[in-house]
Amino acid sequence: MTIIKSIIRKYSTHPPKRQSSLSDIYKLYKNKTPITVITAHDYITGKIADKSSKIDAILVGDSLAMVAKGHPSTLELEFDDFYYSTKSVIRSINEKFLIVDLPFGSFESSINQCIDSAIKLMKLGKIGSIKLEGSYELTDRIKTLNNFGIPVTGHIGLQPQKFNLTGGFKAQGRNSIQALEIFKQALHLQEIGCKLIVLECIPEKLSHYITENLNIPTIGIGAGNKTSGQVLVMSDALGMLDNKLPKFVNPYLNIHNLSIDALNNFGNDVKNLNFPVSSTHTYPMNDEEFEKFQKLAQTCI
């Protein structure tokens, strides 16, 4: 009985945290509290993001094609490869709202293909929204996903899956005609049911105007600080790779160089016989038992 009372007291005082939902994201939005989003691509990065008290949502973005799989763009990523990466992230998530991309080639061919891909991901559990790059051409798909109860996050401005069409990874909406088109796309995505919109690499003035004229949250990346929130790729924010960072990234750490230094220290310790330390890193054996072992071992020689 004492044990049972102790367990009840423990969980009534410190109940386990539940995973955040879309409603939690909208509470932040309505309170004008900036929404923080970071990407994750495996169990380790998901665990780091989930443990951060200042991160509100995690995005399993198809950017993992480049930062975790070594591809030159997101186009080479196979759906099954992305699916298994998503599974590994999900195993690490307990608290954060989770958004997951549909990678290139998994939704364009037909509504059925889009629905099948989205449902396969949603059945993994813990996913709060599916993200799609595009606008008008996705109208039927976004409406259908909504009808099936799947919240959709839109993505306009620079769309990495369409970098060939735009001539590379370039800022969008820098003249009045392009800006108007992006604004119209944002209004359209809101009208057909998107719950969030990512605005990538557009002028701050434009992202501010869009944010002020929508009633759904906008998440910026390379779009200034006037959006409802911000997202960064974790490998960029933490300096995990030695690649050139985009203009809009603020590196908060340089894990790449720190890791190389740490491995060099490990290598030096091994070569100089400073690691492992016998008194610290090894398992003892009783002298009497070792003597018995030596006698037994002699029979094998």
UniProtKB/TrEMBL annotation:
InterPro entries: Pantoate_hydroxy_MeTrfase (IPR003700), Pyrv/PenolPyrv_kinase-like_dom (IPR015813), Pyrv_kinase-like_dom_sf (IPR040442). Its EC number is 2.1.2.11. GO terms for molecular function: 3-methyl-2-oxobutanoate hydroxymethyltransferase activity; magnesium ion binding. Homotetramer. CDD domains: KPHMT-like. The keyword rRNA-binding does not apply. Pathway: Cofactor biosynthesis; (R)-pantothenate biosynthesis; (R)-pantoate from 3-methyl-2-oxobutanoate: step 1/2. Catalyzes the reversible reaction in which hydroxymethyl group from 5,10-methylenetetrahydrofolate is transferred onto alpha-ketoisovalerate to form ketopantoate. This is 3-methyl-2-oxobutanoate hydroxymethyltransferase. It comes from the Eukaryota. Keywords: Pantothenate biosynthesis, Transferase. The keyword Transferase applies. It comes from Pichia kluyveri. GO terms for biological process: pantothenate biosynthetic process. Gene3D superfamilies: Phosphoenolpyruvate-binding domains.
